[in-house]
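Translate sequence into structure tokens.
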Amino acid sequence: MELLQEPVDILIPAALENQITDSNAPLVKPKIIAECANGPCTFEADGILDKNGVFIIPDILCNAGGVTVSYLEWVQNRMGYYWEADKVQQDLERIMVSAFQDVYDTSQKFNVNMRIAAFIIAIERVTKASEMRGLYA
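Result follows.
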């Protein structure tokens, strides 16, 4: 865990969950954490890091690229299209940049961290979809 305590600008936990816990979070001091792993920070660590001013790009946003490309592949196969890698890359970038901007804007609007902002957006989207379909559709 000493590696997590190195003085870096950006820390990218990308393999295991629960890498940053309440016991080591006070010693983890990057400017930004980009959560490429699923759940690399425990709930308690998240609070400590937030209090210490670490900007966290949450896992549900940061590591969504793979599932986004899977969706693009599904669309491509479903519609019988063949897209060049450049088009997929452009679509991925457009979607991910837009998602980041939406989460960031929501975090600023409600004065919350990026994880809470991502949850707000998710809840709003589920609510909107439920309203559009009707409760028992």
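Note: The mean pLDDT is 95.
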